[in-house]
Amino acid sequence: MLDEKQRINQIINLSQEIARVNDLDILLEHILAVSCQFANADAGSIYIMESNYLKFSHTLNHTLQKRLQPGQKLIYSTFTTPVDNESICGYVASTGEMLNIPDVYELDENLTYAFNKSYDNISKYRTKSMLTFPMKNHRDEVIGVLQLINSMDEDGNIIPFSKDDEQYIIHFANNAAIAIERAKL
User: Fold this and answer.
1) Burial 147-168 (b: 16+ CB within 10 A, else e)
2) Is 51 exposed, middle or buried (0-12, 13-18, 19+ CB in 10 A)?
3) pLDDT score, position 108
4) pLDDT score recorded for residue 18
5) What residues contact 143, with CB distance under 8 A and at least 6 apart?
């Protein structure tokens, strides 16, 4: 386990590393892989803002990848979801607030957002803990959403994401947002 100074240094190094990548697809893939590794997340997704929609751009899932033959990649479809308060990603994009959910199947029914279980049903994967961040540029505009799924402990058990992860990942997510904008140009 890294101490605080090591984690800060790692975030600084990662931010500098992503600042050098110009290809948008490679950049998104790298941001997702590094974020999952940093927070010890089993899976994650990146959504990019397009008008009033979030475009599902990249996904990573270690558990599902292990089920595939060597060299095969996860199959996912590109889709969009509205920026509204009904989905978790839409809520994060519309409010600009981070969500750290210990168990998405245990959400309070009075919340405006809900978890869509259809992907879990199709893939036979169980999403539990979720950390979802707005990626904001230097003008404080949300340009995307970074979603990390299922934080894992040393024994491979799913645990909630820590409060410590929040402060580090939000810094990284905002640096990533600036790199994404630059790569789009």
Assistant:
1) bbbbbbeeeeebebbeeebeeb
2) exposed
3) 94
4) 63
5) 48, 49, 135, 136, 137, 177, 180, 181
36 and 60 Cβ atoms separated by less than 8 Å: yes
66, 74, 51, 47: which is closest to 132 by C-alpha?
Answer: 47
- What is the number of residues in the chain? 185
The SS3 assignment for 84 reads coil
Residue 60, Cα to own-chain centre: how many angstroms? Answer: 9
pLDDT < 50 regions, the chain = none
Q: DSSP 3-state assignment of 139?
A: coil
Neighbours of 106 (CB within 10 A): 9
**How many other CB atoms sit within 10 Å of the CB of residue 102?**
14
**Helix, strand or coil, per DSSP, at residue 90:** helix
- pLDDT tens-digit profile of 43-75? 999 999 988 899 887 888 888 877 777 766 665
- pLDDT score, position 29: 82
pLDDT for 137 equals 86
